[in-house]
Write a sequence for this structure.
């Protein structure tokens, strides 16, 4: 499937059982013992540098309809909004959850916690999906840092199931356009390095969640009155999200709310670097440990793109998976 152009390879069979008492334990087991399969499925010749995947595993939470591990070019993320939008449709279309019109709820256990997806169903067909994320919050604002060349910049740090450095690209006089993706990717890498060198992240729920997932460079249009705002998310190992990034939108909403730029119930449109869009809003306010937080609501639609089967021949060393660059 793909959501707003961002791929999602859903692994439906052939993966070994992944033991663990909870989803984070399963994530650690997959990292330690099954990482060759992540490379096999994400890297060339079967995938590419920006491939993304979902491994369905046995849920550990009693309210979960399914559980998922997310995989990409670097490892295993804790939350993925574009994947949730796809898995909501998939769960109903493939019989994991019985369809109920006009809205079917699909509870998905992610490494960051339980995420509720609400799938529109009409005449037996699934359509758009809205998810309510885990508590999202602004960890820090207006942090002053420098790039290796000495360029000063300010960034916020937000959490939406994963931590991001979120900042206005106008500080670097660069627009969020496809033509600038190379420059934006290099810039995001330097921003993440500067943040990691200066800031120690912490999450009140679990240490496994306390890492910087990526950087989100925005067009600076954070006021609610402006109908749409564009951003690019560069995550993992300089992987560029083609969608607006569901967890990133959640983090952006948390920051906008903390700054008084959006109120509960107001809807904003978030566009990606290729122009695909999600709707986002503040569903409710809450807390996460010591942090004032929100429940973000993100809406979009995923589409099916095909099916594939993969196999490995013992003498195919290259076929184990590789990336160039």
């Amino acid at each position: 499937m793909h959501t707003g152009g961002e791929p999602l390879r859903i692994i439906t069979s052939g993966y070994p059982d992944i033991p663990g008492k909870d989803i984070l334990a399963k994530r650690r087991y997959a990292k330690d013992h099954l990482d060759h399969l992540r490379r096999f499925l994400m890297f060339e010749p079967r995938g590419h540098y920006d491939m993304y995947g979902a491994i369905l595993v046995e849920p550990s939470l009693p309210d979960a309809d399914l559980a998922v591990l997310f995989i990409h070019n670097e490892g295993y993320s804790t939350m993925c909004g574009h994947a949730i939008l796809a898995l909501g449709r998939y769960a109903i279309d493939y019989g994991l959850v019985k369809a109920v019109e006009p809205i079917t709820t699909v509870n998905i256990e992610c490494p960051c916690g339980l995420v509720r997806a609400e799938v529109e169903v009409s005449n037996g067909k699934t359509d758009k999906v809205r998810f309510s994320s885990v508590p999202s919050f602004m960890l820090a604002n207006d942090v002053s840092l420098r790039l290796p060349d000495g360029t000063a910049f300010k960034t916020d740090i937000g959490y939406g199931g994963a931590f991001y450095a979120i900042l206005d690209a106008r500080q670097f006089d660069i627009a969020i356009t496809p033509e600038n993706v190379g420059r934006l990717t290099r810039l995001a890498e330097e921003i993440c390095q500067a943040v990691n060198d200066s800031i120690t992240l912490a999450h009140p729920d679990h240490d496994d969640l306390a890492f910087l997932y990526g950087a989100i460079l925005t067009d600076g249009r954070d006021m609610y009155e402006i109908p749409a705002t564009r951003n690019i998310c560069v995550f993992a190992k300089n992987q560029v999200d083609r969608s607006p990034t569901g967890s990133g939108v959640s983090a952006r909403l948390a920051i906008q709310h903390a700054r008084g730029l959006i109120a509960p119930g107001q809807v904003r449109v978030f566009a990606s670097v290729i122009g695909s869009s999600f709707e986002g809003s503040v569903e409710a306010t809450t807390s996460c440990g010591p942090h004032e937080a929100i429940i973000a609501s993100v809406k979009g639609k995923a589409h099916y793109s095909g099916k594939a089967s993969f196999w490995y021949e013992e003498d195919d060393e290259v076929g184990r998976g590789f990336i160039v660059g």
In short: Helices lie at 23-33, 35-42, 81-93, 181-198, 246-258. DSSP finds five helices and 19 strands in the chain.
